[in-house]
Design goal:
By secondary structure, the chain is α/β, with parallel strands linked by helices. The protein has 3 domains: about 220 residues, Nucleotidyltransferase, domain 5 (2-Layer Sandwich), CATH 3.30.420.380; about 100 residues, 2-Layer Sandwich (Nucleotidyltransferase, domain 5); about 90 residues, 2-Layer Sandwich (Gyrase A, domain 2), CATH 3.30.1360. It is built from 11 helices and 21 strands. Strands 1, 10, 11, 12, 13, 14, 15 and 16 form an 8-stranded mixed β-sheet that branches. Strands 9-5-2-3-4-17 form a 6-stranded mixed β-sheet, sandwiched between helices. Strands 18-19-21-20 form a 4-stranded antiparallel β-sheet, with helices on one face. Helix 2 packs parallel to helix 10 and helix 5 packs across helix 6. The protein starts with a strand and ends with a strand.
Amino acid sequence: MTNISGIFSALRSRVPSTSPKKVISIHIGRNSLKAVVVRRDRKRLVIVSAAQVETDTEATYDLNKIGRALSNLLNELGSYPKDGIIVTDQVKFLASELPIPPGKKLPEERLAAAVAWEMEPYIDFVVQEGLFAYRLQQDRTSTDNTPVLISAMGKSEFEAISEILKDFRISLSHAYSPDGAFAFASEVRGDAENRIVISCQHSAITALFLSTTSEAFVLKAIPVEPGFHIAVIETIPVEPGVPLDQQIKRVVHELTGSIGEAKEVVVAGDLASEELIDQLKAELSTEVTIWKPEENLKGFGITLETGDMGPAYAAAMGAAVQELGLVGRPLGVTDKIPLIKRVRERVHLAPAVALATVILCFIGHYAFVKSRIGHYTSEVKELEQKKKVFTRLRDERTRLTSRQKDIAGKKRYLENLPERQKNLVLLLSGIPDLLPDTMVLENIIQEDATSFSIAGSALQASSIGLFANQLSRLEAGKQVTVKAITKQDESKEKGRLPYGFSVELTLKE
């Protein structure tokens, strides 16, 4: 995975003159609608009011249901400004790179075409019917490519929601993705410590790592203040049946394991609660707190004029911070200046130039893809060589392990050899006096230092019992066991005694 460092800057810059002074930010969620009215007082934020209403499941994609729910929401909210923005997962969000060398300036038309080409595989609508927003970070480019952040939404979806809002005298300015909005809902609070911020929604968990370094091996590294960055991982689907605190615990461990320890974990979103915070406090060694605007956006001098402002409003606040111009250029899409339409309507461009622009973008994209394929092919070859070395070392280790076991067995045998020889001599010297005349020994096997297996044949079965009794009287004898007595078929082997036997003898150690 490419580590895209410095994708977009959230450094507080001069407030653009086109930014509104007051905005209503509406978050269209899967199970609820949330709205917050925020006013800009110079570079300070005043949260005027906030409200939330529950909706039917999947009401997000039913525009009629959105209209009815929105009416209830605005009634709860009371007064609100005419300038509005929305946060919805219908806005697609992509972090990528464009094959633009550092410092190179390209016309807006070529950039628009390149952005649309880059985003095309990730959208479910025709490029010509979409709205796009992008942001380059050429000043943070350290390679031949330039990091870019892209947002995209179908024009028909934007217009449909815009028409609904017009019924409530709200002018829709921008539409933001939940991830793009939530990324600006928290800041590093000046104590130079890493923090993890987690948004818990009904369908997914999104985690941000506020870090003091941009060298994080994750999807995005977003600078938010001088010396601080947000390391963003991809959104993780909620697993049905698995406790939410366990899923969050796993996400925290993955982040701290790949980036570094964090001083604090901040939890936001619809499912954030004091009960969840208490569960996480018991399971994590890190300090755990719930998201609050006056704490997590403290640097903007938050003033609350409403007491109803919980962690569910984090994404809506992140979008409002961008819309009010406190973090630079907003990252939402808009139909006021569609990028594709701007490319088409530049009347001074001849058709040949437009065609050449498309061809150049295609060639540049093809060259970039080809270079990446060559890079990965080289990595595959290197990994194959490492695999061969590893296989050889593994086989050598297996051989040495087998050899070690063989040597250990021989060592134990040699260590017990004097005792084995002593016991064998003791048995052989004593057996002639114990063996009845009607019995013949056929073999004696020494199992270990003190155990022997004796086999033979006898003329009478009673002789076997007598022999076993004599063995038990040996001074060093510990245990004698008659394992078997068999009646042998004399017709098969002439000259053999009729009774075969097997006796086990154990001597004292």
